[in-house]
Structure formats: structure tokens, C-alpha cells
Design a protein that fits this description.
Layout lengths: L3 E5 L11 H6 L1 H14 L3 H7 L2 H5 L1 H21 L6 E4 L3 H8 L5 H18 L5 E7 L3 H13 L4 E8 L2 E7 H13 L4 E4 L12 H11 L23 H11 L6 H10 L4 E5 L4 H9 L4 E5 L2 H11 L7
Parallel strand pairs: 1-2, 1-7, 7-8
Antiparallel strand pairs: 3-5, 3-6, 4-5
Helix pairs in contact: 2-5, 2-7, 5-6, 5-7, 7-10, 8-9, 10-11
Length: 317
């Protein structure tokens, strides 16, 4: 039997026009955008569809934007008869996975990720932190580089372990710049600055975790209806207390994406469908294990490709 995972991208995948074709062609899709606007009390959908990109990239806009598009896409897939056996998301994307798993409502998720973005921005205002992808370097060697730069006075640490040969670092702008140079001197192939507005998944974000914990206490969470693999430990989140702890720790902890994908594959997942703009996660999955099938759904053509492929899957066995 084919086992399917829905995976949801994090910040960096946002793009002006995200979900445009679905919104134009489907009232059900448009309703998600309208619901997000109503929940937040401002015109998020206009930013998503028209920009400007600089405003959309701000973390308190990018987070609810990505969540809205991802959940909308996932619901289109479910309406077409494709239902996931597992769900996971990269960083912010974890909230999309939790919505699809029935843990929290779409409206509560939109509200909480907007607050999450505000808390993160307050912890480190836009422009003061940075992130960079380090390519072609072993994890232990990169840990040594970031530890040395931090000891010298500029905080930086490993933030995402994405796939073999791709690790993201996060910290102060000076720390990331210095660690990027040092990593290349130590043998890394490349260091690529990321288009994000803060040093996510670093200790600099710890102040925002207490605020997020308080905000999470005000919303209702339910037991997952399908397994959700968490970022922090790359294991299934079995119940509400585990989810609450995950969402608080996740803010300042490294995203163990490679390990999360390997865990789903170990549980039999052989089809990964990325829900939302871009192709980042499906690309990472392929670098982790080329034997599994990957798809990304972000417009009508990509949705049709998945529906066509699904005719060969054993999903009703």
C-alpha cells in the first residue's frame, strides 16, 4: 500500500502570487484567503497575491501566508481523494501539518503563527539577525566552526539539518558572516545567505518561546488524527503535551529535517507531496533518498500531475 506524507514548507518559500491560480479558479480556495484576512484583521491576501515582496518576507506576514497557502493546497488534495498517512513541516510548516492532522483549527493556526512571527521579530528585529545555508560540510565540523565564532563574541549556531551536504546556520548577522567565511576556509563548498528576516532556530529566539507558550495556552489543541513528525526530535508527536513542548522548543532548536524524512521513510512512506509554494522540501527529500516519489503542488498543472500519478498508487487497499 502506498503511504503518503504531506509536507509543508517554511519561511523562504513565500513568493508574491502564491496560490493565485487556485484562488482565481476556486471559491473554496479563495475562502481560505478570506478567512485568513478576517482572522488577522488585515489584508494578508493582498500581500500574498500582489506584494510587495519586502512586506511579504517579514516574518509576521510570511508565516501566516505560507500556512494559508499550504493548508489550502492540502485540502484541495484531500478533496480530490488523496489523503496523507503522515504529515510534517519545516519550521513554520509544522503548523500546517498540525492543521491537517486535526490538532488545531485553521483559524487558530493563522492567528498563532502571526503572533509567533511578531514575537520572533520582537526578540530580534528585522536586519539584526541572519541565516545562511552551508553546502558540502560535515555537521561536526560545522558545529566546531559555529562554537568558535560564538566563543569569540558573535552568536551563531546550527539551525537546520536539511539533507546530506546542506546545513543552515543562524545567529547575529556578524556571527553568520564570520561563520560563513570560516566554514569555507574549513572546506565548505559554498555559503549562501537566506532571504529571511531573523535568526530563526537559534538561542536568540529563546525570549519569544515564553511568549509563544503563553499564547498556545489560549487555544485548543487536539490529539493528532494522523502521525505528525516533529522538528526537534524527528519523532511522532503523540499527544497534546508533546505538541505544546515541541512548538515552544522548536523556536530556538535546530530543525532535524533530514532525520524527520528518514523516520517517515522508515515507517513506510514512499510518496511525499509538498503543499505550498516552491519546491524546496521535495528537493531536499530527493537528496535524502532518491528511491521515494516526490511532488510539489502549487498550481493547477502541478495538482493535475499528482492526480494523474495517483492512479498508479495503491491508496485504497
Amino acid at each position: 500500500m502506498t503511504k503518503i506524507a504531506f509536507i509543508f514548507p517554511g519561511q523562504g518559500s513565500q513568493a508574491v502570487g502564491m496560490g493565485q491560480e487556485f484562488v482565481n479558479n476556486s471559491q473554496e480556495s479563495k475562502a481560505f484567503y478570506e478567512s485568513a484576512d478576517k482572522t488577522l484583521g488585515f489584508d494578508l491576501s493582498k500581500l500574498m497575491l500582489e506584494g510587495p515582496a519586502e512586506e511579504l518576507t517579514l516574518t509576521y506576514h510570511a508565516q501566516p501566508a505560507l500556512l494559508t497557502t499550504g493548508v489550502m493546497v492540502a485540502e484541495k488534495l484531500r478533496a480530490a481523494g488523496i489523503t496523507p498517512n503522515y504529515a510534517a513541516g519545516h519550521s513554520l510548516g509544522e503548523y500546517g501539518a498540525l492543521v491537517i492532522a486535526g490538532v488545531l483549527s485553521f483559524e487558530d493556526a493563522v492567528a498563532i503563527v502571526h503572533k509567533r512571527g511578531l514575537f520572533m521579530n520582537e526578540a530580534v528585529p528585522a536586519g539584526q539577525g541572519a541565516m545562511a545555508a552551508i553546502l558540502g560540510m560535515e555537521l561536526d565540523a560545522l558545529h566546531a566552526v559555529t562554537a568558535q565564532v560564538t566563543a569569540d563574541g558573535d552568536a551563531v549556531q546550527v539551525a537546520n539539518v536539511n539533507c546530506p551536504g546542506q546545513i543552515v546556520i543562524s545567529g547575529t548577522k556578524a556571527g553568520v558572516d564570520k561563520a560563513s567565511v570560516a566554514a569555507k576556509e574549513a572546506g565548505a563548498k559554498r555559503a549562501i545567505p537566506l532571504v529571511v528576516s531573523g535568526p530563526f532556530h537559534s538561542e536568540l529566539m529563546r525570549p519569544s518561546s515564553a511568549q509563544l507558550q503563553a499564547a498556545l495556552a489560549d487555544i485548543t489543541l487536539s490529539t493528532p488524527q494522523i502521525p505528525v513528525i516533529g522538528n526537534v526530535n524527528a519523532q511522532e508527536l503523540p499527544d497534546v503535551p508533546a505538541i505544546q513542548q515541541e512548538l515552544v522548543e522548536q523556536v530556538y532548536s535546530a530543525v532535524q529535517w533530514e532525520a524527520s524524512v528518514r523516520e517517515m521513510i522508515a515507517q513506510g512512506v514512499d510518496v511525499f507531496i509538498e503543499c505550498g509554494p516552491g519546491k524546496v522540501l521535495s528537493g531536499l527529500v530527493k537528496k535524502i533518498d532518491r528511491s521515494v516519489a516526490t511532488y510539489c503542488v502549487y498550481d493547477e498543472a502541478s495538482l493535475e500531475a499528482v492526480l494523474e500519478a495517483s492512479k498508479e498508487w495503491s491508496i485504497n487497499a
